[in-house]
C-alpha cells in the first residue's frame, strides 16, 4: 500500500501540473515552477522552451483561446492570463480545443503586471512588447533571447504607457496593407512561431 500511495501521490502531483491552474501570487516559488515546466517538457517529449506569453491585457475569450492553442502547439513554457475564469468560457474552449489541459496557465491580473514583469527581469527574462514604436525592431531582424517574455497588448488600446516603460524591447511585424493592425492572436502567433523557429535552428546548429 505504501508503494501504491506514493504512486497515487505522484499521479496527483502530475495531474496538478497538467491542469496548469497557477494563480501567480499564490504559486509555488519560481524555481519549483521552472522544475514543473521541465518535468512537463520531459514527459510530453517537448522542447524545454523558455518563452512566456503574457496575455493579461487581452479581453476576448476567442483571442485567449486561440493563443492558448498556439502557445501549446509551439511549446511555450506558459501562458499568462488576467483571470483563470476565462478557461470556463465556451468561446475560449471552442478555440483552445483542450490546449489548456497541456499548457501551464498562470493568472496575473493587469494590476499585478508591473510587479510580475520586474520579477521576470530578475530571473533573466527579456521583456518583449509587440508594439509599433519609433524604436521598434522589425520581426525579420530580431534575434530572440532564449529566456523571452512576450507581452501582448489589449485588443483596442495596445500596451499602456505605464507598461511600455518596463519593456526591454519592442518588436513589430512588417506590414504592406492599408489596414495597419493585425488581430492580437495573429500578432502573438507570428512572434511565437518566430521564437520557436529560431530556437529550433539554434538547437540544430548545436
TrEMBL record:
Listed GO biological process terms: tRNA methylation
Keyword presence, Transferase: yes
InterPro entries on file: Alpha/beta_knot_MTases (IPR029028), SpoU_MeTrfase (IPR001537), TRM3/TARBP1 (IPR045330), Trm3/TARBP1_C (IPR044748), tRNA_m1G_MTases_N (IPR029026)
Superkingdom in the source lineage: Eukaryota
Residue ranges of domain tRNA/rRNA methyltransferase SpoU type in the record: 51-192
Entry similarity comment: Belongs to the class IV-like SAM-binding methyltransferase superfamily. RNA methyltransferase TrmH family.
Keyword annotations of the record: Acetylation, Methyltransferase, RNA-binding, S-adenosyl-L-methionine, Transferase
GO molecular function, one term: RNA binding
Protein name: tRNA (guanosine(18)-2'-O)-methyltransferase TARBP1
Enzyme Commission number: 2.1.1.34
Role played: S-adenosyl-L-methionine-dependent 2'-O-ribose methyltransferase that catalyzes the formation of 2'-O-methylguanosine at position 18 (Gm18) in a subset of tRNA. Selectively mediates Gm18 methylation of tRNAGln-TTG/CTG and tRNASer-TGA/GCT. Gm18 modification can enhance the stability of modified tRNAs.
Class in the EC hierarchy, top level: transferase
Substrates-to-products reaction catalysed: guanosine(18) in tRNA + S-adenosyl-L-methionine = 2'-O-methylguanosine(18) in tRNA + S-adenosyl-L-homocysteine + H(+)
Known partners and oligomeric status: Monomer and homodimer.
